[in-house]
Structures are given as structure tokens and as C-alpha cells.
């Protein structure tokens, strides 16, 4: 059993490695996308990412995943980067378990978000793969940041003995008659 588990772990790691099947598939996708007035990104976009160049990030990440560029740019070298790339950064996560941030930290984070949104001319940033205190969709910075938990929080909380069935959530963005958009959360109960 242990050997089989180790084989599966190795297979999964190789599948996501540069030049392999899943990396090739991911290379065909954009690391961030704007739909209407919403920016969708895995981990988050920071002002540093915009300064580096979004097209440059996209090109370098695609080349790296396809294993075409053996001398990849600094942005794919985690040790050389001043900040993690948009799919790994967790600089926009507001609270994590017992650590409550100060008001100054929250203001600084909201300021970063506002600068990115202004540069890209969008109203909100939606990030996924984010652990949230509620294990649900959370809104921060006056709805300029929407964090979507992918059930990792619930899995982490199981170690503490705290398990609760959470409703399924869907982020809904509606467009009003005047063209403005409003995000909301729709919940569906968990049925056994």
C-alpha cells in the first residue's frame, strides 16, 4: 500500500512538472483573465506583477510549462523573484486561522488591490484556491477582492476536530439595467 501511494505521489508530481501532460494543458490557459469588469486570477495580482509586465509573465509561464525555454526568465525562478507569481502569491489573503492582521496591514493590502484594479480598469479581483476563515466565499476591501475557498479550509479544520457541512456556494455577478455589476453569493444546502 505504501509503495503504491508513493508511486501515485510521484506520478502526480511529474504530471504537473514542466514539459509534462498537465503542464502542457495548463500552458494553453491564461494565468489571469478579465471578464467584464472582473479580474479572475488564481492567487492574486500585485502591483509588482503589473510593473514586471503581464504579457511577459504569461509568455514566460507558458514557455516554462511547455519546457521550451531552458533559461526561463526570473519570473519563473521562485528564488530569484521579489514576489511570487500570480498563481502562488498569498499576499492578498487577509486572515489565516488564529492570525488576525492589524488595521494597518489591511489598509496596505486594500491599497495594493486598488492600484491593480485602477491600472487594469476593473472593479474587482476574484481569487480562488484561498483558505478563508469561514471556508466560504469572502468579500474584502469593499468587495474589491472576492476570495473563493476551494474546500481546503474545511479539510484543514478536520485536524482540529471541527467539521461542519457547509452549503455549496456559487459566486453570481449580475448586470443591472444601468450596466453596473453586483456580486452576490448563492447557496445550495448539502444533502447527504
Tally of strands: 7
Count of helix runs: 6
Mean pLDDT: 78
Structural class: alpha/beta
Number of self-contained structural domains: 2
Largest sheet: 5 strands, mixed
The radius of gyration over CA amounts to 19 Å
Proportion of helical residues: 25-40%
pLDDT < 50 stretches:
none
What is the global morphology?
Answer: globular
Observed structural traits:
two-stranded antiparallel ribbon; single chain; 192 residues; alpha/beta; five-stranded mixed β-sheet; 2 domains; 6 helices
Structural summary, described in words:
With 192 residues, the protein is of the alpha/beta class. It has helices at 2-16, 21-27, 47-52, 54-66, 103-120, 152-158; strands at 32-35, 38-41, 124-127, 138-140, 145-147, 168-175, 181-188. The protein has two domains: 1-30 and 54-81, no CATH class; 31-46 and 86-192, no CATH class. The longest helix is centred in the middle third of the chain and has 18 residues, at 103-120. A hairpin with a 4-residue loop joins strand 4 and strand 5. The chain has a five-stranded mixed beta sheet. A two-stranded antiparallel sheet has the order 6-7. The chain is built from six helices and seven strands.
Please provide a brief summary of the model:
The protein has 192 residues and is an alpha/beta fold.
Topology:
Elements: H1 2-16, H2 21-27, E1 32-35, E2 38-41, H3 47-52, H4 54-66, H5 103-120, E3 124-127, E4 138-140, E5 145-147, H6 152-158, E6 168-175, E7 181-188
Parallel strand pairs: 2-3, 3-5
Antiparallel strand pairs: 1-2, 4-5, 6-7
